[in-house]
Write a structure and sequence with these properties.
The chain has three helices and two strands. It has helices at 22-43, 48-70, 76-97, and strands at 2-8, 11-17. It is globular, with a radius of gyration of 14 Å.
Length: 101
Amino acid sequence: MAEVRLSIGGRTHVVACRDGGEAALEALGRRLDAHAATAARAAGGQGGERTMLYIALMLADELTEAEQARGGAGASSILLDRIAERLERIADTLEQSTGNA
């Protein structure tokens, strides 16, 4: 297992991933970080967990807009459920690793 350091919203998180998955995970971290400032403002200073929720909502909104633009509404709820599950796992991992940072 490899470990990747992600900087999201000015906080560093150490996340484990499969060997070879480092670049993909770093790209995901950069995407999350791109939304961090807006999400932190939306969360009103209520902490990292709330900020991550807003980041997840922004990404889900982007996904929904992209699907609607393609006309692919059929599988969107299943896909959103999968993404929500993955985001919850990522948030759990980030919360657990906060103590490591």
